[in-house]
TrEMBL record:
Organism of this sequence: Mytilus edulis (Blue mussel)
Region (Disordered): 1-56
Bias (Basic and acidic residues): 1-26
SUPFAM superfamilies: Ribonuclease H-like
Protein known as: TTF-type domain-containing protein
Family matches, as InterPro entries: DUF4371, HATC_C_dom, IFN-induced_PKR_regulator, RNaseH-like_sf, Znf_TTF
Short name of any one Pfam family annotated for the protein: DUF4371
Length: 807
């Protein structure tokens, strides 16, 4: 029992020796001296804690703590200095294990106070296996997040204790303190690499910035690190979107057989060469971090970009008072029927000038091509675009039975929903039908069949094409006439200007065609001999010359009808001009004389004289006029017949009066022909879009007076008249002109979208989905439209939960 009593005495003597100099400093001799030792003690933190010694204590590190506001540099007495010195033998922060209610001051103290060399706390040791181990102060100095708890003899992470979420899976150093000194290095390494700890470090750093008034404002609690992270993520996604827009606009396939070797990734890596942020992002492995380059993400971004462009088009259409629908269907490379929908409406530019716009709005897969299915698909499409079907004033399709049928066609079903949606048969298709039917005369039909077969044989045979190219290079005169054409053009019923182009090429290259066939015939090409015998006849030559001349008269009209900024009045007027020209040529003998001499000249080169077919007593399949003169025979039996047939077809199919055409007399240059009867007819036709009849009549009267007072040039075109009309003064006339301009001329816009579809959904990309096809087509067709990438990123971030933060 005597040994336990000796240890406290020994301990007390040790303490007495420690404070020997302190007692000496309290002697009267030293009262007037300044304690030098105070300058040698490191400055401590505020609110230091003192130790009250007890006889039962065996270690200075087991002292009981209290709070004081003294610091060594401000000690006014030796007792204050004593308290400051003893505080170095305890942790500089509160015991984190005993804290329950933590206010901002305690939290700030716990986070800001760090362990340093001035703290002399002696850590207790414990037995691990066969060795005694204790915590080293170097761990606390090297890891500023560590907080030692005296009560539990364990380590905590101050950042994770204060800022980790309740449902966090990482419990070490937060909910579960660590006291395994043997395996401490491994535990610390794992904890510091955890996502939770890294996030808590950022949160604690920003918390201290806010508490110390170093941030922009307390209201903006978003950390600088978070902002930097968001900016980096948005920058990366912006570059990804730029690549998608580039590929979509230029019709560059995004994917490849191997994803990393796709065009999308190749362009992205090329951009990364000059972009360090993008380069660092792509350097991460797919397993450790999302790259946002997967096919699913591509589809999402393609959809968002396509929707962004589509919204621009739909927004302009919604602002218009009315619109027209243009639709057509076509089979894609996957043998799926795709319906194309285009809208025609008037748009007002910044300078208040009205322009006509025809815009493609997308493809939809048509499971059936019947009129009911197509009409339902159009109605659903318009509903998805949030367009009012009652604002439709016209619909334009080709002449197929499912589209133009009087009772069950698409146009008839749309008319049932909106009686004001007048059907317009595509004028380009109508002109093409006129050319097809007028070319069915026996002589012309046989000639075109021969031309098509020969052109096809040269086009799809390398051997024959080589022979043609060699003969063409030797004939400089023909080469100049072909105007850089290097081969024959085939006929195509769906390419509206191909007939005239094909006949023009064949006629001018006729000597080269014959010489090429002769060379092939000598090379034992049996077909070549048949072709030579077919074309070296005068009936073939005269039919070729006449058909080429008459069809070339319609080329300008064919191209004009495919424009988007024309109106029905101008289109019909141009068709009338073509008909008038043909009528004039019919009565002009010089025209026929020139054509016949041209055919004779072609035949003379091959010693083919002008001739007529032999006559029969009763001919059923060709002209059999009793005329001996070859010129007169071919004029009557070929030229006049073909010309009259062509004029009749164009007149009946293209120059077809619409009920709304009466509004053309509102054009100032035609006002003199506007009668009261015509005025009443106009009101009856457009009454849905007009107000009171009397108000309309008064407006027309003022309209006449207005232009009677104009001495200068009056508007002669429909669009020119609309731009000269004050909408507030003449609202009814403005509405009439708007409806008339909204009516489509042709469905060429839908046909052009099918050309884009064939480029996009090629045989290499035949598995493309319908939505992706539609969105890529929108980006490709509307490639001149700008896209707000910032809006795309914002919409992408809120569409679903993302692994990256973008806002």
């Amino acid at each position: 029992m005597s040994e336990p009593k000796e240890k406290p005495k020994l301990k007390n003597r040790t303490i007495d020796e420690m404070f020997k100099k302190i007692r000496e400093s309290e002697s009267p001799e030293s009262q007037n001296e300044t304690p030098k030792v105070s300058n040698q003690i490191p400055e401590s933190d505020e609110n230091e804690e003192t130790v009250v010694m007890d006889e039962s204590q065996t270690d200075l590190g087991e002292a009981v703590t209290a709070t004081s506001d003294l610091t060594p540099s401000t000690c006014s007495s030796s007792s204050d200095f004593t308290l400051s010195l003893i505080s170095k033998y305890e942790p500089p922060y509160p015991d984190i294990a005993k804290l329950s209610d933590i206010d901002d001051l305690i939290k700030q103290k716990l986070l800001s106070t760090k362990w340093n060399d001035s703290h002399l706390f002696k850590f207790p040791s414990r037995v691990f296996g066969q060795k005694q181990r204790k915590l080293q102060s170097s761990w606390l100095q090297n890891h500023p997040w560590m907080r030692y708890s005296v009560s539990t003899d364990a380590l905590y992470c101050a950042y994770c204790v204060l800022f980790s979420s309740k449902d966090s899976k990482e419990k070490s150093f937060s909910k579960t303190p660590v006291s395994d000194w043997k395996n401490l290095p491994l535990i610390v390494k794992r904890h510091e690499s955890s996502t939770q700890h890294q996030g808590c470090v950022v949160s604690s750093s920003e918390y201290l910035r806010i508490m110390e008034n170093k941030s922009f404002s307390i209201a903006s609690m978003i950390s600088t690190s978070y902002k930097t992270n968001v900016a980096t993520n948005r920058h990366v996604l912006e570059k990804i979107i730029e690549v998608i827009l580039l590929c979509g606009r230029q019709n560059i396939p995004l994917r490849g057989h191997v994803e990393e070797r796709s065009n999308f990734m190749a362009i992205l890596h090329e951009k990364a060469k000059t972009d360090n942020i993008l380069s660092d992002h792509l350097a991460f492995s797919a397993a450790s971090r999302a790259k946002y380059t997967s096919p699913d993400i591509q589809n999402e971004l393609v959809e968002l970009c396509g929707t962004e462009v589509l919204n621009q088009v739909i927004g302009a259409c919604k602002s218009a008072s009315c619109f027209a629908v243009i639709a057509d269907e076509c089979t894609d490379k996957a043998t799926k029927e795709q319906m194309s929908l285009c809208l025609r409406f008037l748009d007002v530019e910044k300078n208040n000038t009205v322009i006509i716009r025809e815009e493609f709005v997308g493809f939809r897969h048509a499971e059936s091509v019947k009129g009911a299915a197509i009409s339902d698909l159009i109605v659903r499409f318009l509903a998805d675009l949030e367009l009012d079907i009652n604002k439709i004033r016209a619909q334009c399709y080709d002449g197929a039975a499912n589209m133009a049928g009087k009772y069950s066609g698409v146009q008839a079903r749309i008319l049932q929903l909106n009686p004001e949606a007048n059907y317009v048969h595509c004028k380009a298709h109508a002109l093409n039908l006129a050319l097809i039917h007028s070319s069915k005369d026996v002589c012309v039909r046989n000639m075109m069949s021969t031309v098509q077969e020969i052109a096809f044989s040269f086009d799809y045979s390398a051997k024959r094409l080589l022979a043609f190219s060699e003969e063409l290079s030797d004939n400089q005169n023909v080469k100049e006439q072909l105007d850089r054409r290097t081969k024959l053009r085939t006929l195509c019923e769906t390419r509206w200007s191909s007939r005239a182009d094909s006949l023009f090429t064949f006629l001018n290259a006729f000597p080269v065609v014959v010489s090429s066939l002769d060379a092939l015939k000598d090379d034992r090409d049996d077909k070549a001999a048949q072709y030579v015998n077919a074309i070296l006849k005068f009936d073939f030559m005269i039919a070729l010359v006449v058909a080429e001349h008459l069809l070339s008269a319609t080329v300008a009209l064919t191209n004009y009808l495919q424009k988007t900024d024309i109106n029905l009045l101008d289109a019909v007027q141009e068709a009338r001009i073509v008909v008038q020209r043909l009528d004039n040529e019919r009565t002009d003998p010089n025209v026929w004389t020139a054509l016949f001499e041209k055919a004779v000249k072609v035949g003379e080169e091959f010693e083919i004289p002008p001739s007529t077919p032999r006559r029969a007593g009763r001919q059923m399949h060709r002209q059999n006029h009793p005329i001996n003169d070859p010129s007169e025979y071919w004029r009557v039996s070929l030229y006049l017949v073909f010309l009259d047939h062509l004029v009749t077809e164009i007149t009946s199919r293209v120059i077809k009066n619409e009920g709304r055409f009466s509004a053309e007399y509102l054009i100032p240059s035609k006002l003199q022909a506007l009668t009261d009867q015509t005025t009443n007819s106009i009101f009856e036709t457009f009454h849905v879009d007009l107000g009171d009849r009397q108000a309309f009549n008064d407006e027309v009267a003022r309209w006449k007076i207005r232009w009677d007072m104009v001495d200068g040039q009056r508007p002669q075109k429909l669009l020119e008249t609309l731009n000269a009309t004050n909408k507030d003064l003449y609202p009814n006339i403005y509405s009439i002109l708007t409806v008339l301009l909204t009516m489509p001329v042709s469905s060429a816009s839908s046909e052009r979208s099918f050309s884009a579809m064939r480029r996009i959904k090629s045989y290499l990309r035949a598995t493309m989905g319908d939505e992706r096809l539609s969105n890529l087509s929108i980006l490709h067709i509307h490639r001149a439209r700008s896209v707000n990438i910032t809006d795309i990123i914002d919409k992408f971030s809120v569409k679903k939960n993302r692994r990256f933060n973008f806002v």
